[in-house]
Amino acid sequence: MKFSKYHGLGNIYIVLEPELQATLITRAMIQTICDPHFGVGSDGILWGPLASETCDFGVRIYNPDGSDAEKSGNGLRIFARYLLDTGRVGHEAFDVETLGGPVTCTIAADLRTIRAEMGQVRFCSEEIPVTGPPRDVLNEEMEVGDRTFRFCAATLGNPHCVVLLDEPPTAELAQRYGPFIEHSPLFPRRTNVQFLYVRDRQNIQIEIWERGASYTLASGSSSTAATAVAHRLGLCDNAVTVHMPGGTLSVALDENFYGTLIGPVTKICDGEIAPEMFGRKVEIGD
């Protein structure tokens, strides 16, 4: 099983081409591949390119637990870089179909600066989804263990819960409360979680707990959702730098909250997975 491994600010994805594999990928295989001890180690898998009736390419994005990630900003920028590296695209714009909707990508001549148009950020509870009456989910409260958090929710095709803080977040905060918020009954499809601190009008800071992936050093869709929430609340401008443990991304929103994400991608390696790897770990059902 041949693979290519990349990271976007420490957010690692493995690209697996269906046409190069001898078998279809299963949930148990995804879990093993992503495991840092028994597998290759990754924050997710990009299964593609796939044929698409509406876009130039299609891709399926999987979390380390084997569940679908409808959309990933870092994953899509990594997939764009892979398409360039394999000679399928140049520096012109192209479209990628995801379960969370189409994304337009453009790769700069330096190969590291990749632009992804992430689609429209929406706050409607029915679209995210969030339980309760139809509403824009803004400035609500939730009890999580010993804490009361103020939060907003949003979707780019995948769900996000943005927790509003008055001081910079820590990794410990995200790791402690993120799992409970991800699985809160408020979010019937679970949710990605961002702990947000607004530094000033042009800079925000987040710590991230990703649905199906746990604590993450950086996330493109999380950056876009957090920027949209902060801007919707009037706390920042429509173009900001998002600071995360893995580094920074640039996010810009238009007047209708369509987000554009810009940042680097780094190739790590190409490799081949030995079949015996899948026999070393007890598999958790497909």
Q: Can you characterise this structure?
A:
The structure is a single chain. The protein has helices at residues 27-34, 73-85, 171-182, 220-232, and strands spanning 2-8, 11-16, 45-50, 57-62, 94-98, 101-107, 114-120, 140-144, 147-155, 159-164, 192-200, 203-210, 214-216, 239-244, 247-253, 258-263, 266-272. The chain has 286 residues and is of the alpha+beta class. It has two domains: 2-113 and 266-279, Diaminopimelate Epimerase, Chain A, domain 1, CATH 3.10.310; 120-260, Diaminopimelate Epimerase, Chain A, domain 1, CATH 3.10.310. The chain is globular.
Largest sheet: 17 strands, mixed
Overall body shape: globular
CATH class of the largest domain: Alpha Beta
Report the count of strand segments: 17
Can you identify the CATH superfamily of the largest domain? Diaminopimelate Epimerase, Chain A, domain 1
Distance between the termini: 18 Å
Instruction: Please report the number of helical segments.
Output: 4
* Helix vs. strand class: alpha+beta
Task: Please summarize what this structure is.
With 286 residues, the protein is an alpha+beta fold. It has four helices and 17 strands.
Q: Any chance you could write out the topology, listing elements then pairs?
A:
Blueprint: E1 2-8, E2 11-16, H1 27-34, E3 45-50, E4 57-62, H2 73-85, E5 94-98, E6 101-107, E7 114-120, E8 140-144, E9 147-155, E10 159-164, H3 171-182, E11 192-200, E12 203-210, E13 214-216, H4 220-232, E14 239-244, E15 247-253, E16 258-263, E17 266-272
Parallel strand pairs: 2-3, 4-5, 10-11, 12-14
Antiparallel strand pairs: 1-2, 1-17, 3-4, 5-6, 6-7, 7-16, 8-9, 9-10, 11-12, 12-13, 14-15, 15-16
